[in-house]
Amino acid sequence: MPNPRLIVALEAIAANSAEVVRRAHARGVAVAGVTKVCCGAPPVAEAMLSGGVDMLADSRLENLARLRRAGFDRVPLMLLRLPMLSRIAEAVSLSDVILVSELAAMRRLGLAARGRPVQAVLMVDLGDLREGLWPDQVVQTAAAAAKLEGLALAGLGTNLTCYGGIKPTPANLGQLVALAAEARRATGLDLAIVSGGNTSSLPLLWEGSLPQGVTHLRVGEGIMLGVETIARRPLPGLRQDAFRLVAEVIEVQKKPSVPLGEISQDAFGHTPHFADRGWEKRAILAVGRQDCIPEGLLPLRKGLRVLGGSSDHLLLSDQAGLGVGEEVEFSLSYGALLAAMTSPYVHKEFLPNP
Ligand SMILES: *Cc1c(COP(=O)(O)O)cnc(C)c1O
Question: At what angle do helices 61-69 and 42-50 cross, to 10 degrees?
Fold first, then answer.
């Protein structure tokens, strides 16, 4: 078996998709399954579709191209990141729905659309300070967008808990619903999509407090890791075992827990600090920052603890009696998963969804 490898249990992704979709559809909410953490991997998209997601969404054109090449045309493809003016033609040919905020981009999208108008969802910044118009700009921009040829304004959306860490609440999502109603009056359009955020909105869905009028959610991490992203707690009914990283032990030796000699900078320019636990068994695994984020790995076996890592080495404190050549399994944080999926050095193994 090639090491390091990332094992993807497609059955867990399908089951999590189905549970998110079941709860969302019960409240009239459509779900876009977000594939970006898996770089648009077709097997993952397929598992999401088998769980019933209504759309597939990704932030990168390369990933949408991967989905198109794999023949995903049963559901709309959504582009999550605001389009670059330099890649408008690709954005139009690869996506059915595009999140937008700048009129300049909307104009160019409309011009690039041939025959079929581009569906656009106008993003509103409800305080997280990433993308989107400030609320006082929304209605006038929607009215201007509604007049553009080649562009079909399909709704409003927001994104929270990404930069500013702002929680979705009935109040801020209620503001999005109210803005959509105002924009409908100003434009005469349906604006059927009111996209109320990402995984961080799932707790509201689970508690039944997602405001009426939110009709769409874009869900990545919740489906992949089975957690919400407010406190990263497991969501009832979702599985947390879709991904495992496997790496191989290349050294086990007894050493002191504090380095010997004068401490300067580590390989990444930080000055490290060490707690003295005396001598201990330490294992080195052949996986590092070029494969994942060491701090985001949690050993699945008892008696193992991640001490740190460099480009190609992961250091564990070993009270489990590891031997050279043995494989160790880890669960991954979202960041570690993103890095492992993106790294060409990590072999990907997809376990089938029966
Ligand atoms: C990444 C992203 C999502 C999905 O976020 P999760 O927290 O993984 O659910 C949704 N919308 C936008 C705009 C994104 O960039």
Answer: 70
* CA 167–ligand 1 middle distance (angstroms): 14
pTM of this structure: 0.96
36 carries an active-site annotation: yes
What DSSP designation does 234 have? Answer: B
Probe residue for ligand 1, chosen from 36, 218, 221, 338 as the CB with the greatest number of ligand atoms within 8 Å: 218
Identify any residues that bridge with 283 across adjacent strands, giving them in sequence order: 252, 316
């709309």: which residue's tokens? 76
- Is residue 81 packed enough to be buried (19+ CB in 10 Å), middle (13-18) or exposed (0-12)? middle
Mean pLDDT of 210-222: 98
Bridge partners, residue 33, by sequence: 56, 219
Instruction: Give the pLDDT score at 115.
Output: 84
Question: What is the C-alpha separation between 342 and 265, in angstroms, rounded?
Answer: 28
Mean pLDDT of 20-30: 98
